Automatic annotation (TrEMBL):
GO terms for cellular component: plasma membrane. This is ABC transporter. Coiled coil: none annotated. Residues 19-301 form the ABC transmembrane type-1 domain. It comes from Enorma massiliensis. It is found in: Cell inner membrane. Belongs to the ABC transporter superfamily. Siderophore-Fe(3+) uptake transporter (SIUT) (TC 3.A.1.21) family. Its main location: membrane. The chain crosses the membrane at residues 20-43, 55-77, 137-154, 245-266, 278-299. It comes from the Bacteria. Residues 572-625 are annotated as: Disordered. It is a multi-pass membrane protein. GO terms for molecular function: ABC-type oligopeptide transporter activity; ATP binding; ATP hydrolysis activity. PANTHER family: ATP-BINDING CASSETTE SUB-FAMILY B MEMBER 10, MITOCHONDRIAL, ATP-DEPENDENT PERMEASE MDL1, MITOCHONDRIAL.
Length: 625
């Protein structure tokens, strides 16, 4: 119930329309309900006494009531539509804005497809329920009360006959609603699943085609689609039972009333007009029961949607700026003080264990480690995409939790592993980094990120449309555009999470050289290739969430077993003795995995071996994906 009230609270300025709409329905119903009484009078008084004047006057009154009922009905429809669609728009906006505020950890709680369903289908369900249910929701109870009142007024005994039938109807309807309610929740979850399959397939449609998995995807879709059809069938099979229940009640009541009414007319206790008027009220009362039961069914379905929407709206944003935040980041120094981190409070293992690191402002740091060793996790703590579970992360000498989030994230620019560009031109995408950037600024960032190498070839240059998700450029070009976008923020700390994996080694070196010229900016580079970090001031080797070693290329090459292994395997294959043969460029985009990974939280075994992970997936040397 409190969720229903919460959603009603979103009416905002449309509350006036909702209230006006309700009033109009009450007036409309009242006018309509007077008509049978006027009709009964025409039969019992006008026709019985052959008083044409009376019949005419009552007829005109009936017409006026019908016309007023029609006008108020029309006015109601206008206000109801405004309230309904206004509420839908406000709900979608509230959900969308809340999702924007959510942290990565918050977003981990929801499937993307489920969020889409909650912002679209669930809101539509509420809209439809309100649109179709608003009128009967008000009209049903109003007609029920007035109908019963007037039925008792016309004939008490007949009204009691009718009252006798009602409990059966009420109990049967309550049972149907109780059974159908939970099924609606299941139905919405099934819609989630369908959206999930469709979204995943559309996002990965190129991979589907490349791997010739169309049949498999179709089978997946068919299974979920048929599941949805089955669930809908099951749900509506029960929902439609309300109609037979109501009609059985209607005809039983009508038959009984005709029988009793007929006896009463024969006994001279009732007039024909009275019985006709009474039967009209019986119809109206039963109609109002039909309306109320339909509203209950609609409401039951929308309650499931309301709950799902409230789950999004009530998700507490766990990363917010503090009360009195610091708005200036003094410098680009970064420090990890005994930091441990787990993605979920109930996770058995930490993704990072007791990490201690000190990165001076303006220095360049490389981060190496096997797949899943915690590299991405480590850097995501710097702009506070997640908060450390234990210990603290400092930027510019202050705990990241003491900064204004926006100020911190403006000072720490991260090029995520999964590069994302948006629909729009190159210029629009780059301006994400700095909306005020001039064309000169954009071209300068493009030069540094080596975007200039292909920008001329894009029709329109900066005005070239990248298409949805940047489909109109290659993987390597996308990475370079993302680097340029990050540079435009003019950050104090620049983080590259494997951001040059899809560019050729020569361009990678070029980009590194131009970044080296950015003095005063701390650069943290996660890379698979030793060559990408060999020139760094210090290199951090991660292993199973722990810092295995820190040092320069020469120091690590001389002392660290994991670094030696990585280096050797990249220069001469997994078992090579590359230590002695000097540094060479690593193969294009090879990824490296340890073949006998140690248990999480334990130091890496000395004999750990690193192997190349399917380099063919990453493109050939010197090329771009
Ligand atoms: N959102 C998440 N929720 C739960 N666990 C996660 C999440 N992201 C990563 N992990 C887990 O945390 C660990 C470290 O992952 P992380 O992405 O930091 O590794 P990585 O070194 O960057 O790997 P890669 O080189 O493959 O990108 C892994 O065991 C991974 O499965």
């Amino acid at each position: 119930m409190h969720e229903l009230r919460r959603i009603v609270g979103f009416l905002g300025p449309y509350r006036r329309d909702a209230i006006l709409g309700m009033l109009l329905v009450v007036i409309e119903s009242a006018f309509e309900m007077v008509i049978p009484i006027l009709m009964a009078d025409i039969i019992d008084v006008g026709v019985a006494t052959r008083d044409l004047d009376f019949i005419f006057r009552q007829g005109v009154l009936m017409l006026v009531c019908a016309a007023l009922s029609l006008i108020t009905g029309q006015l109601y429809a206008r206000h109801a539509a405004r309230a309904t669609y206004g509420l839908g728009a406000r709900l979608r906006a509230a959900e969308y804005e809340h999702v924007q505020e959510m942290s990565f950890a918050n977003l981990d709680h929801f499937e993307t497809s489920s969020l889409i369903t909650r912002m679209t289908t669930d809101v539509t369900v509420i809209q439809n329920a309100l649109n179709a249910g608003f009128r009967p929701m008000v009209r049903g109870p109003v007609m029920l009360v007035i109908g019963f009142g007037l039925a008792f007024y016309l004939n008490m005994q007949l009204a009691l006959v009718f009252v006798g039938v009602s409990p059966f109807m009420i109990v049967a309807l309550a049972l149907i609603v109780r059974h159908v309610g939970p099924l609606y929740g299941v139905l919405q979850t099934t819609v989630d699943k369908l959206n999930d399959v469709v979204q995943e397939m559309l996002t990965a449609v190129r991979a589907v085609k490349a791997y010739v998995r169309e049949d498999y995807e179709c089978a997946q879709f068919r299974a979920v689609n048929e599941g949805l059809a089955r669930t809908s069938e099951q749900t509506f099979k029960f929902a439609v039972l309300n109609m037979p229940v109501l009609y059985v009640s209607l005809y039983t009541a009508t038959t009984l009333i005709m029988w009793f009414g007929g006896q009463m007319i024969l006994g001279g206790e009732l007039q024909v007009g009275e019985l006709t008027g009474f039967l009209s009220y019986v119809m109206q009362i039963l109609n109002s029961f039909i309306m109320i039961s339909n509203v209950f069914l609609l409401l039951t379905r929308s309650l499931a949607s309301i709950h799902r929407i409230c789950e999004v709206l009530d998700e507490p944003v766990d990363l917010v700026s503090p009360e009195a935040p610091i708005t200036e980041v003094a410098d680009g120094s970064v420090e990890f003080r005994d930091v441990s981190f787990k993605y979920r409070a109930d996770a058995a293992e930490n993704a990072l264990e007791h990490v201690n690191l000190s990165i001076p402002a303006g220095s360049t740091v490389g981060v190496l480690g096997g797949t899943g060793s915690g590299k991405t996790t480590l850097v995501q703590l710097i702009p506070r995409l997640y908060d450390a579970s234990e210990g603290s992360v400092l930027v510019g000498g202050r705990d990241v939790r003491s900064y204004d989030l926006e100020a911190l994230r403006n000072a720490v620019s991260i090029v995520l592993q999964k590069n994302v560009l948006f629909s729009g031109t190159v210029r629009e995408n780059l301006c994400w980094g700095n909306p005020k950037a001039t064309t000169e600024d954009l071209l300068e960032a493009c030069r540094r990120a080596r975007v200039d190498e292909f920008l001329d070839r894009l029709p329109g240059g900066l005005e070239y449309d990248l298409g949805q998700g940047g489909v109109n450029v290659s993987g390597g070009q996308k990475q370079r555009l993302c680097i340029a976008r990050a540079l435009l923020k003019r950050p104090r700390v620049l983080i590259f999470d494997d951001s040059t994996s899809a560019v050729d080694t020569a361009t990678d070196a070029d980009i590194r050289a131009s970044l080296a010229a950015l003095t005063g900016v701390t650069k943290i580079i996660i890379a698979q290739r030793v060559s990408s970090v060999a020139d760094a001031d210090q290199i951090v080797v991660l292993d199973d969430g722990r810092v295995h070693a820190v040092g320069t290329h020469a120091e690590l090459l001389a002392s660290d077993s994991i670094y030696q292994e990585i280096y050797a395997s990249q220069t001469h294959g997994p078992k090579g003795d590359g230590v002695k043969r000097g540094h060479q460029a690593a193969p294009g985009n090879a990824g490296w995995v340890k073949t006998n990974p140690s248990q999480k939280g334990q130091a890496a075994p000395e004999n750990a071996e690193w192997v190349k992970t399917n380099p063919s997936h990453n493109g050939s040397e010197g090329g771009e994906r």
